[in-house]
From TrEMBL:
Keyword presence, Oxidoreductase: yes
Domain called FAD-binding: residue spans: 11-358
Lineage: Bacteria, Bacillati, Actinomycetota, Actinomycetes, Pseudonocardiales
GO molecular function, one term: FAD binding
Protein name stated in the entry: FAD-binding domain-containing protein
Length: 421
């Protein structure tokens, strides 16, 4: 029997607090460059969340490199080549897509969030002893060196037993309320709180060719309603924009009435069965950004560093690119020089890039989620850009991540003096 007075002790190059998409992706990216990590995730089971389903083209390339993409395909990942815009009166407004982009995976792939987690964890088996995963680990506080300035790990409990996990670098992937970020005194600026949220019902897919490897977005006076094919295209997620003040009303609707409201917003649903999956979730929408991503030996990834509205489906994908760049920076920092100084490169590279994504997502969120009679009156004018090939390609490139540079493109591991221009 383990001595309760002596904690379990784990050590690796990197300690990752948070084992959702951001943390698991960081572990994969680190293992790919030969860096060991400990992943501490407080949830014992995989989460059942009705959001975070869409993987962008750049993310698919990263996941392929990490050996995760084949698991995503095996679990029913469904490819999406375009996104169409509709109005319940005017009908089809136009679409933009990825097919003409010069990328290894010129499409999105959609997979239920819980299955994406399962795919990430299934792929850990390919990394041998480089990744040590501990689910059900409740982190309680950071560990500092003798100077009290450098974070070297964390303490906590798992299965009722205390533990200490230490490494050269600590990564906070513990979400928007990150305890590690707060303990380091890093400010997290909430830049915009939107006056709506999304209700996320799921139902059988309607008999509609418009959903064949595509998403549908209904815009209009009530705001944005999306249809996202799931489970190999057999079901569809339907994010409904609802005013925050009406949350309790919408959650109290009987299934028949909720279905009527959904069909009213998105008429294409009329051919579906009307069976709504149980367990409705609502999703608040924020725009927030950390003032910095690095402090000493602590680095932030994913929602601990930035929270973005879901309109362009960028949240998970920003986290994966964070992981890719951070892993290369850590590898280079461990190979020589002062680690804390070396880690600053991650902040210099990723934070400005994410600022651009945050701005683009905010702009599109305001445009697509506008409500009121004027939206219906001017919808043909406001979405006329869909007829412009240059504008359509610009949106597709931004969403796909074509202008975001990976660690390889930045030359972090082969540019001793800094980032390749």
């Amino acid at each position: 029997m383990h001595n309760k007075l002596r904690p379990l002790r784990w050590e690796a190059d990197v300690v990752i607090v948070g084992g959702a998409v951001g943390g698991a992706s960081t572990a994969h990216a680190l293992a790919t460059v030969g860096v060991s990590s400990i992943v501490l995730e407080r949830a014992a089971d995989f989460p059942e969340l009705n959001r975070g389903d869409i993987l962008q083209p750049l993310s698919l390339s990263l996941l392929d490199n990490w050996g995760v993409l084949r698991h995503i395909k095996a679990m029913g990942g469904y490819d999406l080549v375009a996104s169409g815009f509709y109005h319940r009166v005017h009908g089809f407004l136009g679409e933009w897509g990825f097919e003409d982009l010069a990328m290894a995976h010129p499409h999105q792939t959609v997979l239920r969030h819980t299955n994406l987690h399962r795919a990430l964890y299934a792929a850990f088996a390919d990394h041998g002893e480089l990744v040590s995963v501990h689910r059900g680990a409740q982190v309680s506080s950071p560990l500092f060196d003798d100077s009290g300035e450098v974070m070297r790990g964390v303490t906590g409990t798992i299965g009722g037993e205390p533990f200490e996990a230490t490494g050269e670098v600590v990564v906070a992937a513990d979400g928007p309320s990150s305890r590690l970020r707060r303990s380091a005194g890093i400010q997290f600026e909430q830049r915009h709180t939107y006056d709506f949220e999304y209700m996320m019902p799921t139902c059988p897919r309607p008999d509609a060719p418009e959903l064949e490897h595509r998403t549908m977005r209904y815009v209009g006076a009530d705001g944005l309603t999306m249809l996202i094919p799931l489970d190999g295209g057999t079901e569809v997620r339907v994010p409904l924009q609802i005013p925050i003040a009406e949350n309790s009303h919408w959650r109290s609707l009987q299934p028949r009435e909720l279905w009527r409201r959904m069909v009213e917003r998105a008429p294409v649903l009329e051919s579906a069965s009307g069976e709504i999956e149980s367990g409705l979730h609502t999703y608040r929408v924020h725009l927030s950004h950390a003032e910095r991503y690095v402090k000493g030996n602590l680095c932030l990834v994913g929602d601990a560093a930035h929270v973005v509205p879901p309109t362009l489906g960028q949240g998970m994908n920003m986290a994966m690119l964070d992981a890719d760049v951070l892993a290369a920076v850590i590898r280079r920092s461990l190979d020589g020089g002062d680690i804390a100084t070396g880690l600053e490169l991650y902040d210099r590279v990723r934070r400005p890039a994410n600022e651009i994504v945050l701005a683009s997502s905010h702009e599109q969120t305001l445009a697509q989620s506008a409500t009121g009679p004027a939206v219906d009156e001017h919808v043909l004018r406001d979405f006329a850009w869909l007829a412009d090939p240059a504008r359509r390609r610009e949106v597709a490139e931004r969403v796909a991540g074509l202008h975001n540079k990976t660690a390889g493109q930045l030359g972090i591991l082969d540019a001793p003096g800094g980032v390749r221009q």
